TrEMBL record:
Example GO biological process: regulation of cell cycle
Cellular component, GO annotation: chromatin; nucleus
Any Pfam family the entry gives: PHD
Record-linked SUPFAM superfamilies: FYVE/PHD zinc finger (SSF57903), SET domain (SSF82199)
Protein name: [histone H3]-lysine(27) N-methyltransferase
Domain PHD-type: 39-89
Assigned EC number: 2.1.1.369
Residue stretches making up the SET domain: 221-343
MF terms in GO: chromatin binding; histone acetyltransferase activity; histone H3K27 monomethyltransferase activity; transcription coregulator activity; zinc ion binding
Keywords: Chromatin regulator, Metal-binding, Methyltransferase, Nucleus, S-adenosyl-L-methionine, Transferase, Zinc, Zinc-finger
Catalytic activities: L-lysyl(27)-[histone H3] + S-adenosyl-L-methionine = N(6)-methyl-L-lysyl(27)-[histone H3] + S-adenosyl-L-homocysteine + H(+)
Organism in which the protein naturally occurs: Nicotiana tabacum
Record keyword Cytoplasm present: no
Length: 355
């Protein structure tokens, strides 16, 4: 039997290793050798505990725990390190709100000012007559996102993502990519999943394809990427989003987990947990990605953290391939930030320090 939706996912695959030289590494890099940083605290959680996992920014001297950063760092980076605020503040540039530039950035096929509510390529199905003799529980189908009707606002939404991707040094992609030297597409076989994988029903596959076609036409999901000094780039709902609405697919370069176990790349996502560990796959969105990269995680060890969760992340078998889909887990209000649980398997990735 396939596992439930709450037990088949995790965002990162490599837990941070205890780092005993974090602060000492930074002390040696200071110009003033006699400067004391023993009272440094994490700017995010406010704690001075776990000093061996506390990094100090080489620009502003602000401290951050490895596990409080978003994205998290699995280990102390080589060379100088700058906190998200310094990195993004120095590099943050508004993407031009010009339709031609946005069309080129996202490779939009057909710009449009209208919103196609239905997929014209999908034939309409006849409504089945219900029978009073048979009582069955209807399966809850996934819903396509509902784009904003205002074309100017859609340009602003796309520009916010373009700004975040440009700042992060990544290009836009809305599909899984298979690059030379990494995992081949033939390696992505959902049948290899260790505990079995849920099969996405045909109707929901059509809905996922509809969402992708809307993005290709410039009919954007109602999401806005904003910058927060503590959380970095994060995503807000730009209009009301109904429960079970498809938010986006998690995409990026597909690689073998064995090649990424010591990788400092941020926001890696499990794609396939195979019975044979050498065949396990991850999604690496550091070079090619979409808005999923900027949706933040929760602290699933606290009640308040769990209350913030409004998105679930599920790995599905889609025509024999493993795919990762982010879905609204409840109604989401306009202006509400999006959060999902990094972990599906209990305690696979430590989140107890998340704010």
């Amino acid at each position: 039997m396939a596992p439930s939706t709450s037990t088949v996912l995790r965002r990162r695959t490599v837990a941070p290793k205890p780092v005993s030289t974090a602060l000492r590494k930074k002390y040696k890099s200071r110009k003033k050798a006699d400067e004391d940083y023993s009272d440094s605290c994490c700017e995010k959680c406010g704690s001075g505990d776990n000093a061996d996992k506390l990094l100090l920014c080489d620009n502003c001297d602000m401290g951050f725990h490895l596990f409080c950063l978003n994205p998290l760092l699995p280990s102390v980076p080589q060379g100088s390190w700058f906190c998200p605020s310094c990195v993004y503040t120095n590099n943050l540039n508004q993407f031009p709100l010009v339709q031609t530039k946005i069309v080129d950035f996202f490779r939009i096929q057909r710009p449009t000012n209208s919103i196609d509510k239905l997929n014209p390529d999908c034939p309409k199905k006849r409504k089945r007559s219900s029978s009073s003799l048979v009582v069955s529980k209807k399966r809850r189908r996934l819903l396509p996102f509902n784009p904003c009707e205002d074309p100017t606002r859609r340009l602003e939404q796309m520009a916010s993502l373009a700004m975040a991707l440009t700042t992060a040094g990544a290009e836009f992609s809305n599909e899984l990519t298979y690059m030379s030297g990494m995992a081949a597409r033939s390696a992505n076989r959902a049948a290899l999943e260790r505990d079995g994988m849920q099969v996405l029903p045909k109707d929901d596959i059509e809905t996922l394809h509809l969402c992708k076609k809307m993005v290709e036409r410039g009919e954007w999901p109602p999401l806005m990427v904003v910058f927060d000094p503590k959380e970095g780039f994060t995503v807000e709902a730009d209009r009301f989003i109904r429960d079970l609405t498809i938010i986006t697919e998690y995409v990026g370069d597909v690689d073998y987990l064995k090649n990424r176990e010591t990788d400092d790349g941020d926001s890696m996502m499990t794609l396939l947990t195979a019975g044979d560990p050498s065949k396990s796959l991850v999604i690496c969105p550091d070079k090619r990605s979409n808005i999923a990269r900027f949706i933040n995680g929760i602290n699933n060890h606290t009640r308040d953290g769990k209350k913030k969760q409004n998105v679930k992340c599920v790995r599905f078998d889609v025509n024999g391939e493993s795919r990762v889909v982010l879905i609204a887990s409840r109604d989401i209000r306009k202006g509400e930030r999006l959060y999902y649980d990094y972990n599906g398997y209990e305690n696979e990735y430590p989140t107890e320090h998340f704010v």
